From TrEMBL:
Molecular function GO labels: manganese ion binding; metalloaminopeptidase activity
Organism: Paracoccus hibiscisoli
Matching Gene3D superfamilies: Leucine Aminopeptidase, subunit E, domain 1, Zn peptidases
PROSITE patterns assigned to the protein according to its UniProt record, in alphabetical order: CYTOSOL_AP
Chain coiled-coil ranges: none
Record PANTHER family: LEUCINE AMINOPEPTIDASE-RELATED, PEPTIDASE B
Taxonomic lineage: Bacteria, Pseudomonadati, Pseudomonadota, Alphaproteobacteria, Rhodobacterales
Entry's Gene Ontology cellular component terms: cytoplasm
Keyword Secreted: no
Protein name as catalogued: Leucyl aminopeptidase family protein
Family statement drawn from the similarity comment of this UniProt entry: Belongs to the peptidase M17 family.
Length: 456
């Protein structure tokens, strides 16, 4: 589905937003009080006219002191009756951009398998808000969610390639794909090893947009389904593994945001997606195998379920050969990150303090929070096994997100700056603007931070 604002007209319905305990607007009359309206979070009171029709509504924002808990307050307005609405007034302390984006994100529904989407209420974009920019952001987020929510039966590596090609065609980008046996011939042995057991061949998708300016390269993990390989996941852990391409989905969503908003202008933008399915078959890679990499480093496989870092490693090496000014990896990489910070707050790793500070501040400002974690060098020996250069799954069970980040950093040499995001890509329970299911993380934070980062 496509997010949209309503056109301005004289027939749109007014919506008043009020904090709990604040006076109600005079135009509301006595009906809200008589109806028991208190202004609690998300409470909506529909206002009747003299003929019993609808003349507007009031929505509660809750306790002003707890405003920071609700990133997208206006997403709750999705339950309003179908029609076109405008904000009658903007209370102090609310960002109109966040309100309008919240409304757009609240429109999202995944209806691929349930027929046409139901029309919901539409908002007239508030004055002073860049509607095109917000529509680009919401459109990118909708793409990310759609891709993550689509099951692997309809989104294997081949279909992920088709989605990438469709986006590239839409924004005027160029695409090259290296597939199947060509991965070995062109020296991508890790990508080939992880994906060779699947019925859909492994591939590396390479999208480019722009020919001048600083170079930004985004590498997104595209494991379209992860059985765990021969280290087979239990059923409870395998149930959500259609989302293991959440890094790729977020990378494509960010690409759409940047292109559609005009923020990609003046950049050389590259998106690399190693697209594989980690399957079980007679030719699957095995625990104990030692695999070569494009970089020349050997990797001992101590768990075939730690495959994401393997496919990223070859793609990162390829990316670093062009010496991008900034390289970013987005990956649903470790359960350790979820244990540490939960599903809502993805950790990220970056050696450059100014870049890290810009990303974290931007994430908080736009309601897309991320939290910096350290490349803790004292843990480097944990990823160095006895018989190979690197270990893909250190034993011990501690600091799993950090050791994964240290592993990836070995393949970022050549990039001017590097940042890695260990995202979850899934909303486990519904929240305003974020229904249960696939969700983008870090894309809006990066979009907001990029001008400051790349100006250095």
């Amino acid at each position: 589905m496509t997010p949209e604002f309503a056109p301005a007209s004289d027939t749109t319905l007014p919506l008043w937003l009020v904090w709990s305990g604040d006076p109600l607007p005079d135009d509301a009359g006595s009906w809200p009080q008589a109806s028991g309206f208190t202004g609690k979070t998300g409470q909506i009171c529909l206002l009747p006219d003299a003929q019993g029709g609808l003349r507007g509504a009031i929505m509660g924002l809750g306790d002003r002191a707890q405003a920071g808990r609700d990133r997208f307050a206006l997403a709750r307005a999705a339950s309003l009756p179908v029609g076109d609405w405008h904000l009658a007034a903007l209370p102090d302390g609310l960002d109109p951009d966040q309100l309008a984006l919240g409304w757009l994100l609240g429109q999202y529904r995944f209806t691929r398998y349930k027929g046409a989407p139901v029309q919901g209420p539409r908002l007239v974009c508030p004055q002073g808000v860049d509607a095109d920019r917000l529509l680009a952001i919401a459109g990118g987020e909708f793409l990310t969610r759609d891709l993550i929510n689509t099951p692997a039966s309809d989104l294997g590596p081949d279909k992920l390639e088709a989605a990438a090609r469709a986006l590239a065609n839409d924004i005027g980008a160029r695409v090259e794909v290296i597939c199947g046996g060509q991965l070995l011939k062109q020296n991508f042995p890790l990508i080939h090893a992880v994906g060779r057991a699947s019925a859909s061949e492994p591939r590396l998708i390479d999208i480019r947009l722009g020919d001048a300016g600083p170079m930004l390269t985004i590498v997104g993990k595209g494991v379209c389904f992860d059985t765990g390989g021969l280290n087979l996941k239990p059923g409870a852990s395998m149930g959500l593994m259609k989302k293991d391409m959440g890094g790729a989905a977020t990378a494509l969503g960010l690409l759409k945001m940047l292109a559609r908003s005009g923020a990609a202008s003046g950049l050389r933008l590259r998106v690399l997606i190693p697209a594989v399915e980690n399957s079980v078959a007679g030719n699957a890679f095995r625990p104990g195998d030692v695999l070569p990499s494009r970089k020349g480093l050997t990797v001992e496989v101590n768990n075939t379920d730690a495959e994401g870092r393997l496919v990223l490693a070859d793609a990162m090496t390829y990316a670093a050969e062009e010496n991008p000014d900034l390289m970013i990896t987005l990956a649903t990489l470790t359960g350790a990150a979820r244990v540490a910070l939960g599903p809502d707050l993805p950790p990220f790793y970056c050696d450059d303090d100014a870049t890290a500070a810009a990303i974290q501040a931007a994430g908080m400002a736009v309601g897309d929070p991320v939290w910096r974690m350290p490349f803790w060098e004292a843990y480097e020996p944990q990823i160095e096994p006895a018989i190979a250069d690197l270990d893909n799954a250190p034993s011990g069970g501690m600091a799993g997100s950090i050791t994964a980040a240290l592993f990836l950093r070995r393949f970022a040499e050549g990039a001017g700056r590097y940042a890695h995001f260990d995202i979850y890509g899934w909303q486990p329970s519904a929240a305003p603007g974020r229904p249960k299911g696939g969700v983008g993380q870090a894309a809006r934070a990066l979009m907001a931070a990029l001008p400051q980062i790349l100006a250095r």
